Amino acid sequence: LKSDDGSLDDFLKIEMSVETTDEDNEAVLIEKTAIVRDAIISVLRNKSTDTIFDEADGSLVIKQEIISKINQSLGSEIASDLYITNIVMQ
After folding, report:
1. Whole-prediction pTM value?
2. Which of 1, 5, 9, 15 is nearest to 46 (CA)?
3. Backbone angles phi, psi at 73, to 5 degrees
């Protein structure tokens, strides 16, 4: 994570599950795991300790940003939801 001074000293470990609407999309997610992971990392590395827990309408903003980035990276609406199952920040 970015810190307030712009350095990358803060640490985030996050576990999540990506939901999709059908089995064909599930196969795409599994097949393109590296692309999905890169999309997630590209969203998270631009967050800071102050912005990682920003909420809108009672939901974490990063969830929708990650879903959008995954779908953009894969070129279609594959990811429909995202569940954060564990998060540690230091």
Report:
1. 0.86
2. 1
3. -65, -35
Question: Residue 6: its pLDDT value, please?
Answer: 62
Q: Determine the Cα–Cα distance for residues 25 and 7; give it in Å rounded to an integer.
A: 37
DSSP code string of the chain:
-B-TTS-----EEEEEEEEESSHHHHHHHHHTHHHHHHHHHHHHTT-BTTTTT-EETTEEHHHHHHHHHHHHHHTS--EEEEEEEEEEE-
Residue from 39, 15, 21, 14 nearest 79 by CA: 21
Q: What is the mean pLDDT of residues 50-57?
A: 86
CB atoms inside a 10 Å sphere around CB 77: 14
Q: Which of 82, 57, 54 is nearest to 67 (CA)?
A: 82
Beta-ladder partners of 56:
59
CA distance 66 to 43: 6
Bridge partners (DSSP) listed for residue 40: none
